[in-house]
Amino acid sequence: MSKTEFPPSITSRPVYGELEARSGSGHLMIADAEGAEAILDLANSADADFWAKAHIIYIPKKTGTKYSSQLEALGAGKYYAGPSYEAAQSRIRRALQDCHMGTQVYLSGTESLMGQAMAEATAAGIPHTAIQTEHRGSTARRMQCVHCKGITEDVTTDPFECSHCGLSLFVRDHYSRRLAAFQGVRVDAEDPGNIPEKVELFK
Amino acid sequence: MSAGTAKLNVTVAEVKPINDLVTRFKFVRTGGGDLPTFSGGAHTVVEMQDGDITRLNAYSLMSNPADRGAYTISVRRDDQGRGGSKFMHSKVKEGLEMVISNPVNLFSLDLRAKKHLMLAGGIGITPFMAQMHQLSMMGGNFELHYSVRTASLGTYAKELSERYPGKVHIYHDDQKEAIDLKTLLANQPLGTHVYVCGPKGMINWVHSTAEDMGWPREAVHSEEFLAPASGKPFEVKCAVSNKIVQVGEHQSLLEALEAAGIDAPYLCRGGACGQCETNVIGYDGKFLHYDHWLTDEQKAGGKHIMPCVSRFEGKTLVLDR
To answer: Does residue B2 lie within any of the structural domains?
Structure first.
């Protein structure tokens, strides 16, 4: 899938760039699904010395083995592929704990992956403006219900049903870096029962 | 004058020579009472009545920010300077009443940092002294690397080593000791912020080395006050106040505006803070930009000038003041 262009929105909504190889003492790369393409594109401008200092953490999701062998062939010092973000989380935390100032962090793939990994990296002490991101693949959103606080992953329609409390929620662009989630607000709060038809906004 | 920040009337409570070049001054509020709180890294602008000339120099506060009873500053005598430090050394005695500005902090700690790595050169130690007071009260994690010319000119080096054992590293130029910056920066845990205060060369060295090593720009902090450069006298037209002002050889444009009764804004008077940025309405000549504030494009654009340190050479300069 090609690079994503998002319509202009409120300042709260994250924007993403394009990954570029930067000088640093180490390179921590975290990607999911089509996010692998951003790393493979970056490979054109990075040498063997760069990859020797790189640690790739990859979650293929529905892409299966489409990209994993190419990623592995880049020759990164460390390469890990895992089944889910949750499964990779302890590895991400440990990797951040072990690295020093000067380490570059590269995130690519879905907003859910980038947002959660960004929250880990900033908690570890990297300013969010110094973390590179590139959106690839699905535009499905990670949403937080403002009523029950439950998180619903991979939301593709507006409105959608909260997977925790069942309310129909309106998908806002209002984003929380702390939660790595967009805000979902009850769509029929003023007029209970008046729920507009679902529109597939995200793929 | 209402520009700058609110003023404080203070009395000099102590004048203490520290070594051949540096003297420490302690100010208390005239008539008693607490001084405003400040945060580590803040400075105050000291007004000096030197005959007909009012000199305004910024000095970092070095005392404990929790101590509201007094402020202390340390002044290094600069015999080649414009006279502010010489005035402090020769004319300021205990009991003198002076006017200083409220503290302003352009070099504050980033309290999100997990560790504060401080690099000081010479008299650049002063803001770190207040910051170390602040951090040690908060249980903050810090480390000081302090480069001095000789042990006898190592202002406060001995007492800092005693006050913060294990956290203070002193480097003596005359013993060929130098900060091993690359090794130091390579071994810092994530979340470290580096702060540098000292000569221009040291500041540039730290910024460029950190950048080459992949440090985020936001984690590198510096402070350098520039003394306004002397230069050829020039004339400036002030469009708003409808005045023509002559800027003398050893006078800054800001000082000339103030002497002409124009209420020009300022804070740091050293090219760092951006407060005095002034729009240029027209000019025929060339700008001598010395500040750290304007971008290179702005400096080339001829639309802005920082009157605290920058000058002009040419036929006419018209400012929006």
So the answer is: no
